[in-house]
Structures are given as structure tokens and as C-alpha cells.
Amino acid sequence: MTTQTVLTKAERRLFRAFWQDGLLDIIAGATVALIGVGWLLGVFVPALGLPIVGVFAWQGARRRITEPRLGSVEFSDARVHDIRHGLIAIVSLGLVVGGNLITRVWLAGTPTPFTQWFAPAIPATIIAAMSLSCAAALGLWRFVAYGVVFGVAGLAVAEFDSEPWWALITGGAVVALCGVDMLVRFLRRFPELPNEAEW
């Protein structure tokens, strides 16, 4: 087994561990849920800035919680390139799906019975699409389950003619709670390193 092969396998293990601390799930779920709460309280537009806050919160949490246990991980250029393009793909798909649904349902002339029924499910459907994109782009297959959760929540609010924010609050809470469970298991599995390590 060559040194390059060993390093490649080690990087793969580190990459998997990089996403197994549950922090991404907690921050993403809480962000979506808080957007729903903001919508409920009539401050939807300001709440749309929460994803930016979430990115900084995630980075800060990783420095305080994950890096003392895994060390400061620096991936290869190819891996960083894949992560960057994966994140771009996630956002792009959300914008494409959202724009398409809004155009077809909310901005299209006289609504049909189906579009009237489906309209409350649009926000959750956008999040579901982004979850599936995240699963494919980053190899985080648990996000397929999250996508299903948001999809079901969206259909539920449509079926019961409820408000869209309930799907965001419910789906976001489920994702965040799953993240908390992951974080607890991560903390048990990885104690803090004696000194900061760099990879």
C-alpha cells in the first residue's frame, strides 16, 4: 500500500468525521425553524438574514467544539474544490426550484385548484430540494431523510390548509434535534486532544 493511498484513505475518514459532529444539522435546522418563527411573528424579511448568521455560528462552534477533538483539518485542493462546488450547487438548486415554483404557483395568472392547494408547501419544498442537493453534493446521505421530512411537512400544511411556517418550524426542529443527538455521540467518541493537532 503506497503512502499516497494511505493519506487518501486517512483524508476520507477525516472528511466523514468532519461532518459527523452534528453542528451542521443543529445550525441548519435551527436556522430554518427560526425563519419559520420570524414568519409567524411577522418579521419574515429580517429572518432571511439568519443563514448568514448561521454560517458564522457554525464556524465558531467548530473552532470551539470540533477542532479541539479532531484537530485543525486542512483538506486537499481537490477536496476543497468539491466542497466549494457542492455548496454552490445546494444554493443554486434552492434558487432554481424556488424561482420555478413561485413563478408557476404564486405569479401565474388565475390559480388552479392544485396550485392553490400546493402553495403553502412551497417553502418546505424548497428546503427539501436543498437538503437532497446537500446529500448528493457532500455525500451526507442523512440529508435525504431531512429532505423527506420537509417534503412531508410541506404536504401536510397543504393538505390541512395551514400556514407555510409550520412546516419550516417542524422540519427545522426535527433536523436540529437529530443534530443534538449526533453531537452528544460525537463528544462521547472524541475527547479533546492534549494539544491542537493539524492535519
Tell me the radius of gyration: 19 Å
The stretches of 5 or more residues where confidence is low (pLDDT under 50) are: 3-7
Percent of sequence in beta strands = under 5%
Structural class: mainly alpha
How many separate structural domains? 1
- State the total count of DSSP E strands: 0
Order of helices and strands: HHHHHHHHH
Bin the helical content. over 70%
Distance between the termini: 20 Å
How would you sum up the major sheet? none
Overall form: elongated
Question: How many distinct helices?
Answer: 9
Average pLDDT across residues? 80
Q: What's the layout of helices and strands?
A:
Layout: H1 3-18, H2 23-40, H3 44-47, H4 50-70, H5 77-106, H6 113-118, H7 122-138, H8 142-159, H9 164-189
Fold and architecture overview:
- This protein is mainly alpha-helical and 199 residues long.
- The protein contains nine helices and no strands.
- The radius of gyration is 19 Å and the shape is elongated.
Summarize the structure.
Helix content is 78%, strand content 0%. It has helices at residues 3-18, 23-40, 44-47, 50-70, 77-106, 113-118, 122-138, 142-159, 164-189.
Which features characterize this protein?
199 residues; mainly alpha; 0% strand; disordered N terminus
